[in-house]
Structures are given as structure tokens and as C-alpha cells.
Amino acid sequence: MMADRSMADCIEDYLKEILSDVDQIELKRSDIATRFNVVPSQINYVIKTRFTLQNGYLVESKRGGGGYIRIAKVTMGPDAHFIEELLQDLPSQVTVKQANDILTCLTREHVLTEHEKCLVETLLSKETLGVLAMHDAQAQLRARLLSQLLNRLRFESERE
């Protein structure tokens, strides 16, 4: 188990070294696996656990013979601290009212436009999530969706 961990660290360090000079890299999973003499699933593990949105990376992956992994660095937007606080206070179940209150707050702080707020409200509504019979399941899914939105907003890509 320790050997797996240190190999994962080596792979992570290698990819971060490449990313230190550029904002985005595109690579083949099999090439990296060959370089480190590991199976491609080890590369998947490193990418999935070390290059997350929460850690400041966006990952796009396409499987298959012509497949690739694209890793892009993202930076925290100016509202990152504010959004981080919202995330920390987000319960595991969120009512429609709680979700709408958070969206209103994000709109007031100019993180979302009014149009974006309305779109997200529609996605988080009882009508949309009503396919789940259990009210608790709706509230849990609403919380997860809102959490993902907040994480994405927290790490807005740098715009030139």
C-alpha cells in the first residue's frame, strides 16, 4: 500500500511539474502509465483524487484509443472566501427555500446574474426533483447540486 502511495505522489508531482509552466496539459493515460510502469487505472486514481476542482483543477477525459486527459489550472475568483463560507454552512439536505435564499445571495453579490439564478432555481425546484418520491432524497440531491455549483463558482477559470 505504501508503494502505491509513493507512486501516486510521484505521478502527481510529475504532472504538477508540467503544469507549473503552463495553464493546461493534454496527455494520454497510457503514455503516463508506461512512463511510470503502472497500469492506466493508477493514473485514473491520481487524476481523480489529486486533480479535483476543490484542489484548483478542471479535468476533462476521453477514453478509448484516441483518448486523452486534459488538466487545466483554475484560480479562485474574487468571491472565493464568500463562497467557501456558503459551502461550509451548506447542510446535507437543502429545502427549495434554502436553495433560493443562497441563489438570491449569490445574485446580490454579483456572483450570478438574475438569468443564471432563474435557471438554477428551475433545476433545484420541487417540480424538477419531483421524480424522486422521497422528500429526503430530493433535499439531498438539491444539496449536492448546490454544492457542485458553489465549488465551480469558487474556482472560476482565469479570463484573459
From TrEMBL:
GO terms for molecular function: DNA binding. GO terms for biological process: regulation of DNA-templated transcription. Keywords: DNA-binding, Repressor, Transcription, Transcription regulation. Residues 6-74 form the CtsR N-terminal HTH domain. The keyword Transcription regulation applies. The keyword ATP-binding does not apply. Pfam families: CtsR, CtsR_C. InterPro entries: CtsR, CtsR_C, CtsR_C_sf, CtsR_N, CtsR_N_sf. This is Transcriptional regulator CtsR.
